[in-house]
Design brief:
This is 60S ribosomal protein L38. By secondary structure, the protein is an alpha/beta fold. It has a single domain, classed as Signal recognition particle alu RNA binding heterodimer, srp9/1 (2-Layer Sandwich). It contains two helices and five strands.
Length: 75
């Protein structure tokens, strides 16, 4: 069962956890979704501001969690 995170600080703490396996970034027309896979849950943070999304991407822990980018076509 997935869980949604509403605060950027909580998402960064979750991404730095020991059981975090990967972070996926999904971009659509209106929103950028950051998804972190932990052992029990998939945590999702939705960011509606592109500037905040870029800052968040840069502040993810480097090297500790594999980063995957997934782009959607806007049909």
């Amino acid at each position: 069962m997935p869980k949604q995170i509403y605060e950027i600080k909580d998402f960064l703490l979750t991404a730095r956890r020991k059981d975090a396996r990967s972070v996926k970034i999904k971009r659509s027309k209106d929103v950028v979704k950051f998804k972190v896979r932990c052992s029990k849950y998939l945590y999702t943070l939705c960011v509606f501001d592109a500037e905040k999304a870029n800052k968040l991407k840069q502040s993810l822990p480097p090297g500790s969690v594999p980063l995957k980018k997934i782009l959607f076509d806007h049909r």
